[in-house]
Amino acid sequence: MKLLYFGDVVGKPGRAALTRLVPELRKQYAVDLVLANIENSAHGFGFSPEVVAELEACGVDLFSTGNHAWKNGEGVRMLEKNPKQVVVPENYLDPLPGRGYTELEVNGTKVVLLNLIGEVFMEGRTQSPFRTFDRILEKVGPEALMLVDFHAEATGEKRVMSWYIDGRASLLVGTHTHVPTADAHIMPLGLAYVTDLGMCGATESSLGMNKDLALKKVADELDVRLEPPTEPTTVTACGILVDIDEVTKLATKIERIDREVTL
Ligand SMILES: [Fe+2]
Ligand SMILES: [Fe+2]
Question: Which residues bind Fe cation 1 (predicted)?
Answer without folding.
Answer: 8, 39-40, 178
